[in-house]
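Consortium newsletter contribution from the modelling node. Members have asked for a concrete example of what our holo predictions look like. Here is one, prepared for the N,N-dimethyl-L-histidine complex that several groups have been discussing at recent meetings.
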Amino acid sequence: MLDKTDTEAQQREAFLRDVLAGLSKSQQKTLPARWLYDERGSELFEEITQAPEYYPTRTETGILQDNAGAIAALFGPEAVILEYGAGAGIKTEIVLEALDRPSLYVPIDISGDFLAASAERIRERFAELVVEPVTADFTQEFDLPGDLPEAGRRGGFFPGSTIGNLDRAEALIFLKRMRRHVGEGGVAVVGCDLKKDVAILTAAYDDAGGVTAAFDLNILTRINRELGADIAVESFAHEARWNAATSAVEMHLVAQEPVTFSIDGRAFSMTAGETIHTENSRKYDVKGLTALVEEAGWSLDEVWTDEDKLFAVMGLKA
Ligand code: AVI
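And here is the predicted structure:
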């Protein structure tokens, strides 16, 4: 059994490995987006969801509210709800509130502390509901609780367009895994941001208040703090770029001048204008989403969207 210190040491090792590998690349330097979410990064992400330019959270919340009855019908009575990533707060509550006597809610998240806090909030709000949190990285294989009730359907819930942060191969692996988890007769509700005017997209990932910039730059502060590096964070600026070929908004940290720094005794240098690519947020259209989910073995039962077709919530059947 690992204690907290072991897992923290392993986490630091994994972070160091990813940072050294990503920043050693001679062409495009990269950092995996999952490292954006330390405590400060998670706080900043919450702030992003409130930014006027960041339409996905409030749009998806509206779609869930407007279609709560249909979503509840898809899950059916006494459903077992598996939520992948347990930070959806109000969105989770809208769905749980609408369900007919759900038999179990299983939130799954890599951050045990965060998971415990959100599980507690759900227990307080829904006194009758049995909540069984699972600490796991849902992009990897993991075990569900062994004693899932059999009465109702199993339903996956994956809101927030997190599917857009996965590349196509990763999204397929995830969707197949979720299908295995819910089994024959199971269902899922998945939120995904849609392709739209590039100006709307880039503004959403570079808000005027500078919250997304702070979120992106925080990964450098994290590298300095956790890996004892000496990166001059003020020498970088955040940029959101649309990549039409991959249909993704990319976040980049752009060196504003030539920079040198060291991490774990290794020296790095970047030229002015060179960037570190920190995140992809892929955008789909309904045709592309249909092809994606069908390739993973699901059938697309319904697509709920908003008036402006900014965001889609899909109802899937296994
Ligand atoms: C978590 N994920 C769905 C967000 C997105 O929109 O891709 C992360 C984010 N990055 C910058 N703003 C929001």
